[in-house]
């Protein structure tokens, strides 16, 4: 990128603009090469202004939330990362019906706990998920038999051609672990969202959350990972297929298919993105050969892999 453009970005975003940033510092798997620049934003207004600036300058960019569900190449990616720190949350209990408002960088776990403590039910399932509101909508995140689609009322969207508007649920065209954002890469970003709730007692809602957190601790592995690597095929479990293929505990370099849950790949410290990628390819190849099932990644691959 031309230095004059970087100079403009530095002047516009000041101390929130950082050049040549290693993505390993910003992903939950602790892997990933450098990006051209990272811009940190702290509100939905800042996010909208930042994105409009990058569109005006015709600069490629991506929105980064918690850094889960992505694998960035060791070679890095030729883009600008917008780090979404827009985390404002409003729990409205005095209206009928009650609702939850959250900016797109807000933590799913924080939203779940704060709404539960206010006696609102609907988001308890999200408490153990290490992601953000925007990322959850983008990928239709879900757990324990439900998902974002089941609770989303509307979201404020900035579209490159249409401007800012509230999108109703139907416009997202949600499918299993997918939305129109993820499938079609439309020129738009999620600024904030409003969620439907039902009233309950704080004790009951927090009881559900504690149960889900305990279940996650028992069944999902600790350590640096991207979360579930593959979508469950229809009527099947990706984890069970991987285990049945004899790959549980298999290693490439410093990356390992978790001995606790075989749909997780863990960074044993200093793993490379290529280590993880090679394990993913091995899983796909072996499962397809043994069971004639092609596993589809739940994570996104960013950059070039060998």
On the 0-100 scale, what is the average pLDDT?
96
What's the structural domain tally?
Answer: 3
Terminal Cα separation, in Å? 25 Å
Number of strands: 18
Extract low-pLDDT stretches: none
How large, in whole angstroms, is the Cα Rg? 20 Å
CATH topology of the largest domain: Uridine Diphospho-n-acetylenolpyruvylglucosamine Reductase, domain 3
Oligomer: single chain
Shape: globular
> What is the spatial order of strands in the main beta sheet?
6-7-13-11-12
Describe the structure concisely.
Strands 6-7-13-11-12 form a five-stranded antiparallel beta sheet.
Describe the structure.
The protein is α+β, with helices and mostly antiparallel strands. The chain folds into 3 domains: 82 residues, Uridine Diphospho-n-acetylenolpyruvylglucosamine Reductase, domain 2 (2-Layer Sandwich), CATH 3.30.43; 131 residues, Uridine Diphospho-n-acetylenolpyruvylglucosamine Reductase, domain 3; 65 residues, Uridine Diphospho-n-acetylenolpyruvylglucosamine Reductase, domain 1, CATH 3.90.78. It has 8 helices and 18 strands. The strands form 6 sheets. A 5-stranded antiparallel beta sheet has the order 6-7-13-11-12. The chain has a 4-stranded mixed beta sheet with strand order 1-2-5-3. Helix 3 packs antiparallel against helix 6.
Descriptive keywords:
single chain, 4-stranded mixed beta sheet, 26% strand, 3 domains, 5-stranded antiparallel beta sheet, Uridine Diphospho-n-acetylenolpyruvylglucosamine Reductase, domain 3, 306 residues, Uridine Diphospho-n-acetylenolpyruvylglucosamine Reductase, domain 2, Uridine Diphospho-n-acetylenolpyruvylglucosamine Reductase, domain 1, 8 helices
């Amino acid at each position: 990128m031309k230095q004059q453009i970087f100079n403009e970005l530095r002047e516009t975003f000041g101390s929130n603009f950082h050049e040549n940033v290693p993505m390993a510092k910003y992903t939950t798997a602790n892997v990933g090469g450098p990006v051209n620049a990272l811009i940190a934003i702290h509100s939905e207004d800042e996010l909208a202004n930042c994105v409009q600036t990058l569109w005006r300058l015709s600069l490629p960019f991506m929105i980064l939330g918690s850094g889960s569900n992505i694998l960035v190449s060791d070679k890095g990616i030729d883009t600008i990362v917008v780090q979404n720190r827009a985390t404002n949350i409003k729990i409205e209990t005095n209206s009928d019906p009650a609702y939850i408002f959250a900016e797109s960088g807000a933590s799913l776990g924080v939203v779940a706990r704060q709404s539960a403590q206010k006696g609102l039910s609907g988001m308890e399932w999200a408490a153990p998920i290490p992601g953000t509101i925007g990322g959850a909508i983008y990928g239709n995140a879900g757990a324990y038999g439900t998902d974002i689609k089941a609770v989303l009322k509307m979201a404020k969207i900035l579209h490159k051609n249409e401007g800012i508007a509230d999108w109703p649920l139907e416009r997202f065209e949600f499918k299993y672990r997918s939305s129109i954002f993820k499938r079609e890469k439309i020129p738009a970003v999620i600024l904030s969202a409003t969620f439907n709730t039902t009233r309950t007692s704080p004790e009951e809602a927090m009881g559900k959350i504690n149960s889900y957190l305990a279940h996650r601790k028992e069944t999902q592995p600790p350590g640096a990972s991207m979360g579930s690597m593959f979508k469950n095929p229809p009527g099947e479990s990706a984890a069970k297929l991987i285990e049945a293929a004899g790959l549980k505990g298999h290693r490439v370099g410093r990356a390992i298919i978790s001995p606790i849950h075989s749909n997780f790949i863990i960074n044993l410290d200093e793993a490379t993105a290529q280590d993880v990628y090679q394990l993913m390819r091995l899983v796909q190849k072996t499962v397809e050969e043994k069971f004639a099932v092609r596993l589809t990644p739940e994570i996104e691959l960013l950059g070039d892999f060998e």
